[in-house]
Amino acid sequence: MVRFLSLLFLLIFVANIYAQKDSAYRYPGILKATATITPGLMLNANQTNIYINGELEYFADDKISIRGDGFWMVGAQQKIALLQQNSSVFFGALYHFHKNRFDYFIGLQPGLSITKPNATNEITSQLPVLVNIQKEYDYKLLPNFSPLTGITFYVSDYFNFFLNVRYVYARYFGYENSSLNLSEFRVSAGLGFQIHTKKK
To answer: How far is CA 166 from the centre of its chain?
Structure first.
């Protein structure tokens, strides 16, 4: 992943030299779509969740876009995973800062996730012995809060390179008689596609 991100940054740097000679890129009316594999680094547990991530974005004008994101959890890097499921959807607005074909953005997206932690072991006293039982958890629909930022370089009228970083906050109540903080950073990068829905 580190090598891939280093290569992406190198491509963006080289592309920046090319972009200096380019005229201002036309943003209003762009419809963008991407799909990639995204790691989610949990902040309160030694866990890395793996998601298949897709996004759809439309530029309402030069500076504002509306974007929806979906994340389907397919597993975790650890053998003993904290979560069985943590798929989520987000929708919100982004604000953009342009420099030729470079597009830097910040945004905020509320969302929902369907979450289920894996079972945990619980020791209970059943006199005259202690009994180890497994505690199962239910699927729950949780509200999420997600600020995000990133950069896109438009290679042509149809292709782009992108890098997104987002923070996701959510909490699962009723976990081991308390709550489970699901905060994580999700990083995605790759090749995206776009079309212009408005004529020049």
So the answer is: 6
